[in-house]
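Troubleshooting entry. The earlier prediction with adenosine-5'-triphosphate gave an output that would not parse, so I re-checked the input for stray whitespace and re-submitted. Clean input:
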Amino acid sequence: MTKLQIKDLRKTYGAFTAVEGLDLSIEQGETVALLGPSGCGKSTTLNMIVGLTDPSSGDIRIDGRSMLGVPPGKRGIGLVFQDYAVFGNMTVRENLSFGLKVRRMTKRDIAKEVEKTADLMGLSNSLDSPTSVMGGSQLQRVALGRTLVTNPSILLLDEPLSNLEAAMRNEMRQELRRIQKQTGQTVIYVTHDQIEALSLAHRIAVMDRGRLVHYGDTHEVYHFPKETFVGGFLGDPPMNFLPGTVQASQTGHRVDIGCATIDVEATPLGLSLQSGSKVTLGVRPESIDLLDVGATDLGAEILLIEQLGADTIVTLLLGTHELKLRSTQNVSHHIGDRCSLCFHPGMVSLFDAETGVKLMASPVSKEIAA
Ligand code: ATP
């Protein structure tokens, strides 16, 4: 069942367009991350959903009903920000009760709901503690609990973990996943942190300069980005990009990347590439194998080897292009060594060199020829 539907949403400030033609549909019980760099329009979108900012055009529907003109308090949306906004002069119980008292619920019902939420949030033993003595992650639990207790139709989380230190962020990420699973709550999670988006969301909406660039499940958005922007924004290290030129071949298509030619299959949609057209080939660091020199015709030189615990990041020079490889295996090569590379079949993407838009769904690298 569709919970939230956003249609052709637009927000302009004078001549400046902050959000452009945004279409987004979120299902009941789904967690969707709105992800993008600073200034891409996440907060503007969020504020339009909540009702704090009026759209210039377009529509926002919750449970099929248009929210245009509906005041924020009547949209059934619970909002949690990064700065906890917890009442510091109240206990946890008083904080959790607040929204229910405003709704004039009976004392007995309030006590029942507060205890249920405290249990969900792991706050049962702190109900009578003053929030003034609590630390970051506990305060965020109170803030989240105070919103969840009101049983919102949609929960909007705006960078909720940004103020927490790394260890607390990890703990709260796990907690958010558990809470979402337990409650089946529909969640929109606004973040510029890709790890949060990838680990928490069912689907990710990547925004760039007011546009929704890619909306899909985490696997698809990560491995088969629709634009070079997405491949470059997601991943650490990000996707490698190699400029190339399409060559016609009897078996399909080939991309000449200067130092080698890579065979790629045409897309299942039958898109055929013009011979001579300029493309950008994208491959993730973990989709490249490091082999002994001579194993393939894709020869490279090792510039740097970084051991990062479980992973090793290898910086390579392929022709005139630097690229990064991630390996979970022990790397026996050394800096300065020559080696061979193999791009994993099916894990190479092709983009239009000029626009950065994907040309093929997931072309299969069949063989690598010099
Ligand atoms: P951040 O992560 O830094 O909050 P964001 O992705 O949430 O960024 P927005 O705050 O939505 O981005 O801003 C999108 C663009 O709209 C920015 O260029 C911002 O300067 C502009 N903008 C936002 N509000 C206004 C306003 N009231 N008047 C003019 N421009 C605005």
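This one parsed fine. The radius of gyration is 25 Å.
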